[in-house]
């Protein structure tokens, strides 16, 4: 996308899904031809190295390093925010976002609550989530009942295509509908064949009879402060999930989530008894903040890649989230060697060992025996 285009009017933003798929294939082909060139040439430009690093194991054409096929990825590359050229995979087009001033809903309150409730979209209607108080009045944002009474479900992404499902309050729904990326295609950045990590059998997570759990590994030596990838969440959950939603979670998500997003969610690990999606979501949620909520009560997001990262109290990457781009990312805290497992932290690394262990056991059902905690 050229930087001279107007915000939100990029050519990719107006493309149909089949056109985006064709573009995907074209990029795959261009990428493989570049990889071929870079192997043949004794010298490469720094831009080409960016796209096809000589130390990176080469992915055969049409096969991605992550072991995923394009059809497995809920959010393939291709939107109107980033330049998907492999020459500039991480260059954010700031022009698209520069005029976006998030509405200050926190201070405005739900003055137009009735209007916003009238606009609750078909996801909410179809799943029959109550959006009014029992006395038929609109809930206000600070109403203690609002969390259970006014849950909304909405899709954020390309309509009819891949989109993230968001369980939230009406205020957040209003905010997301005002977001410049509302109804725009979401994507993984850079193109998934260029992501310098792969999903492999974990060095720390034993799945019992099912064998090793999964984890993320560096596909090449990765420098400090490198953004490994950016990806939109499969799902965002309000922290106050009503029993109404929890009990019907499988049914609601089956009715509202695109098939690709469902498949990606179902592929994630579940550390809770049973095989329901709610357990899967609880296992894989990571804090993502939206300006409609106080920072100490963030939403939880489930991601295709981020949620594969195992825990260490001495992590080598940090999780980043930007609600403006609607993407989570992993950023290296130090140099990571090829083949090394990538770890984030699931707890407060400044807490005592006992407190860290207690939190991890309670939330994720394993005893942390990382390099910092040791085996005992
Ligand atoms: C968000 S998932 C991480 C990805 C997961 N390993 C997989 O196979 O998809 C969290 C779960 O991974 C496992 N896990 C994560 N870090 C671990 C560690 N340091 N030691 C043992 N198990 C761990 C636990 O079962 C935890 O509930």
TrEMBL record:
Location of the region described as Disordered in the Swiss-Prot/TrEMBL record: 34-63
CDD domains: SET_SMYD (cd20071)
Domain SET: 195-347
Family matches, as PROSITE patterns: SET
Record InterPro entries: SET_dom, SET_dom_sf, SET_domain_protein
Composition-biased stretches (Low complexity): 38-56
The protein's name in its UniProt record: SET domain-containing protein
Organism, as annotated: Exidia glandulosa HHB12029
Species classification: Eukaryota, Fungi, Dikarya, Basidiomycota, Agaricomycotina
